[in-house]
Q: What sequence folds into this?
């Protein structure tokens, strides 16, 4: 293990301990949440409580369908990753598609929309599930905007700057998870009545820590980091880690601010319009010529099954 790993590990331990302490000692306001918290709707335009409920059900089914499709996709996904000065053409498919943070965030949305639908249509009496639903909504909002912002303004530009194609970001399912994720939570923010509780922000930090630890494990197993800013061998690793956790917290508190604005009749409409504009501004749907990488000339990169993924960790030169 490098010295950078132990520095990052110490930081993760401190952040985890602080988050758990805040959860244990802060007023989480659990008693203020009930079924109306989850099922309530801010009637705007043609949307009402019933439409919101069925939209959530439709969205949860859509996310399930997406997860099934990426799992059974025989082609899989080819990632262009520059690590240690070598361009790796990494092939992932099946369960390995669920090792990326984007899919983790997508699955959190599945849990939220699925649980809110369960509470609405089946059984809304379980208060623990109501509490979980509130936290999952908050996590979904913060992680969705983190994913889209980092993809649009960090990962894709970094690929282009290094002369690496970014084709994998523009595959159909990648586009869905990188763009519809923020559209989903923006719609929720505009129409639902779930309070965005500021003291819940440690949950979003713990979610980020959980994926970071998983990324370390995945590197030990496969020898690759999907995201260059999680590579603890980087001399700026601590800076990247602090920046990512702060960004996660920033989007959480932005959600809290928007939720409060939605409850203020004097600025409610302005808040809704500004959220819509911001959301569509950060989307990345179309690619330019610089974001396209020609197919590799060497057929050895065309793996047909999961076990051969290790064989794809080779230089493209």
A:
């Amino acid at each position: 293990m490098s010295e950078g790993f132990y520095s990052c590990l110490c930081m993760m331990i401190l952040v985890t301990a602080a988050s758990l302490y805040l959860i244990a000692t802060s007023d989480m306001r659990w008693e203020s949440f009930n079924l109306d918290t989850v099922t309530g709707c801010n009637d705007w335009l043609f949307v009402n409580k019933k439409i919101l409920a069925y939209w959530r059900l439709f969205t949860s089914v859509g996310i399930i369908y997406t997860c099934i499709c990426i799992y059974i996709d025989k082609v899989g996904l080819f990632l262009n990753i520059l690590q240690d000065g070598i361009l790796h053409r990494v092939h992932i498919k099946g369960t390995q598609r669920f090792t990326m943070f984007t899919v983790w965030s997508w699955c959190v949305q599945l849990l939220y929309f699925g649980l809110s639908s369960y509470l609405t249509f089946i059984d809304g009496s379980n208060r623990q599930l109501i509490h979980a639903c509130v936290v999952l909504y908050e996590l979904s909002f913060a992680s969705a905007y983190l994913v889209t912002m980092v993809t649009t303004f960090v990962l894709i530009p970094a690929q282009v700057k290094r002369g690496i194609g970014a084709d994998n970001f523009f595959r159909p399912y990648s586009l869905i998870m990188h763009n519809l994720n923020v559209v989903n939570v923006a719609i929720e923010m505009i129409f639902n009545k779930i309070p965005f509780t500021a003291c819940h922000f440690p949950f979003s930090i713990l979610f980020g820590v959980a994926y970071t630890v998983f990324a370390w494990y995945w590197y030990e197993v496969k020898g690759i980091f999907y995201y260059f800013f999680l590579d603890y061998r980087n001399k700026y690793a601590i800076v990247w880690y602090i920046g990512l956790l702060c960004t996660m917290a920033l989007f959480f508190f932005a959600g809290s601010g928007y939720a409060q604005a939605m409850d203020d009749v004097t600025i409610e409409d302005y808040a809704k319009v500004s959220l819509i504009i911001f959301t569509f501004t950060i989307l990345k749907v179309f690619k330019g010529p610089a974001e396209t990488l020609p197919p590799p000339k060497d057929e050895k990169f065309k793996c047909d099954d999961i076990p051969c993924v290790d064989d794809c960790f080779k230089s493209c030169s």
Remarks:
- Residues 3-312 form one domain.
